[in-house]
Amino acid sequence: METFSKKEKEKLRQKKRKDKEEKREERKATAKKGLSLEEMMVYVDENGNITSTPPDPKRRRDINQEDIQIGVQRQEDREAEDPIRQGVVTFFNASKGYGFIRDLKSQESIFVHMNGLVDAITEKDKVTFEITMTPKGASAIGVKKVAA
Predict the structure, then answer these.
(1) pLDDT reading at 130 higher than 80
(2) b/e map 101-124, b = 16+ CB within 10 Å
(3) What are phi and psi of 143, to 5 degrees?
(4) Given this model, what pLDDT does residue 89 score?
(5) Which residues form the CSD domain (predicted)?
(6) Among candidate residues 140, 105, 99, the one with its CA nearest the CA of residue 121
(7) Considering the domain boundaries, does residue 130 fall inside one?
(8) Domain of 106: which CATH number?
(9) Regarding beta strands 109-113 and 137-145, do their DSSP bridges make them parallel or antiparallel, or are they unpaired?
(10) 29: containing domain
(11) Is 69 inside any structural domain?
């Protein structure tokens, strides 16, 4: 003996099966027949952009294999920067214990926490500091006030 809910569930299954079959048939009917090889070809131009036209052989450039750099620049290849930088305090909230310093060389804003202070600072003070990388980004440590 079948209950009403069993009959309804079976009707839903049949309807889903029928809908799925109809969609499959519709996809088969509207699907493009295979493309020719020329229609499937794509090219890369001299700037690395994908295009449908072949590149111009007159614009071809020879590239030395040793000049190609993959990955990050090696540490020994980089110039040794002066670890002590100079900047201006753009914002400092003493009650919350943090602020920001504008680096005079790179003009980037660097976070500073009161634990990284050597001298007490206020806004618009000229300071020297070192940068350390934290999980949240660059942070200033060893912050000292510069005598004006």
Answers:
(1) yes
(2) bebeeeeeebbbeeebbeeebeee
(3) -75, 120
(4) 94
(5) 84-145
(6) 99
(7) yes
(8) 2.40.50.140
(9) parallel
(10) 1-62
(11) no
- Rounded to 10 degrees, what is the CA torsion of 118, 123, 127, 130? 70
**pLDDT tens, residue by residue, 44-66:** 887 788 888 888 888 777 888 88
Amino acid identity for residue 2 in this structure? E
**pLDDT value at residue 1:** 67
Please give the tally of structural domains in the chain: 2
Position 44 scores a pLDDT of 85
Give which of 90, 78, 93 is closest to 127, Cα–Cα: 90
For the entire predicted model, the pTM comes to: 0.47
Helix, strand, or coil (residue 148): coil
Alpha-carbon gap, residue 18 to 12, rounded angstroms: 10
Q: Which two tokens stand for residue 122?
A: 């206020």
Identify the band that residue 148 occupies on the pLDDT scale cut at 50, 70 and 90: low
